[in-house]
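Internal tracking record. Fields below are filled automatically when a chain is submitted to the structure queue. Please do not edit lines marked as system-generated. If the sequence contains nonstandard residues, flag them in the REMARKS field before resubmitting.
Queue: standard
Priority: normal
Entity type: single polypeptide chain
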Amino acid sequence: MYKEMVQRKKFPAIVLLFIILIMFICLSDLLPRSSMGSINIKTFVTMFFNTLMIALCYMEFSKCKVKYKYLIVADQFIIHKIKGEEVTILEDIKLKNIEFIGKNSNFTSKKHICSSKNYICSTFNGSKFCCVYSVGDKLKKFYFQPSDSLMNKIAVIKGKSLLTL
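SYSTEM-GENERATED OUTPUT FOLLOWS
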């Protein structure tokens, strides 16, 4: 059995929100004080940017509360989503059904993939891996953020080395 947990870090989210805030302030300052009738355009745009910024803050900080737990139990690869006290099983895959697992940039296939999901916590998708697996006669794919030890564990259990490490 092997398990690891990934969670979105708050610092990159705060940096991203700070950069967006600076862009909104600069855009707002570029607008001249003009009005259409009794409506001041700069005030309207500033209120719009403030509302948008509050919505973005809410979205980013709600994403920071989500954790993903990756488990390998016997020959099963299981992904749980943890949000507060609620735990949901997102994927339960037999390792023998995995067609490809590795860096997303190394994946090339002409086959049709019927669904694609995202189990990534990172604000900036630097270490994005993908897993393509078969369910019956269909292929499914998801993106995730494993550690090197998880990838090595999967390679050992599958009995072959992964060229994408």
